[in-house]
Write a structure and sequence with these properties.
The complex is a heterodimer of chains A (about 120) and B (about 110). By secondary structure, chain A is an all-beta fold. Chain A is built from no helices and eleven strands. Chain B is built from no helices and twelve strands. Chain B is globular and about 40 Å long. Classes of the chains: A mainly beta (about 120), B mainly beta (about 110).
Amino acid sequence: GAVVSQHPSWVICKSGTSVKIECRSLDFQATTMFWYRQFPKQSLMLMATSNEGSKATYEQGVEKDKFLINHASLTLSTLTVTSAHPEDSSFYICSASGTSGGDSPKTQYFGPGTRLTVL
Amino acid sequence: AQTVTQSQPEMSVQEAETVTLSCTYDTSESNYYLFWYKQPPSRQMILVIRQEAYKQQNATENRFSVNFQKAAKSFSLKISDSQLGDTAMYFCAFMKQGAQKLVFGQGTRLTINP
C-alpha cells in the first residue's frame, strides 16, 4: 500500500515553455501533498505544501507564480513550472500523506520523481 | 527552527558487515518524530524506519534498528548483515508533533561492496 506515482518520469522542454508534473496517490487519500526539488548529490528542498482544496503554502524563496501547485482532489496534485528556464532544470519529487488516527505522524510516501531538463 | 545534521557524507562497507549511520538534530520541542529514508540509485525515496520521541524503546525493522538518545539529540541507524541492495543515499528526517513538514539532513551516501 501507500503508492505514489509521478508523471512524467522525465521531460525535456525548451526555454520559455511551461511544464506540468502530476503526482497521484494510488491507494490512499492524500489530504496533504508536498513538492520537493533535489539538486545532484544534495538533500531534498521543500518547495511547497498543499492541502486538498486549499491554496498551497510556499516555502520562503520559492516563486509561487513560477511554480503553480494545484491539489484539486484527494488523489492528485500538479506542479506547473511556468516559463521554464535552464536554471529550473532539476529533479522534482512529490510526496503524499493521508489521514491517520491517534498520535501517529502522517508519514510521507514519495513518488519516484521527475527529471526536468530545460534547454 | 529545527536542524538535522548527518556528519558522514559517505561511507563504504563490505557485504554482510554492520554499519552505523549518524544523525543529530537540534530542537526545543519535546514531542516529535524521527525518520530514516533511503534513496537508492533509482531515486525513489523509501521509508526505512521511524521513531516516536516519547517512546524509549528503539525502533527495529528487520535488519534496521535505531539508537535513539533523546537527551543527546542523536538518532543513529544501524544496518546489520548489510546487502548490496542497501547501497543508497540515506536521509535522516525530523517532524515535530502536529506538524506536516519533514526537515531533512544532508544525507549519507552508503556503498555496500561485494
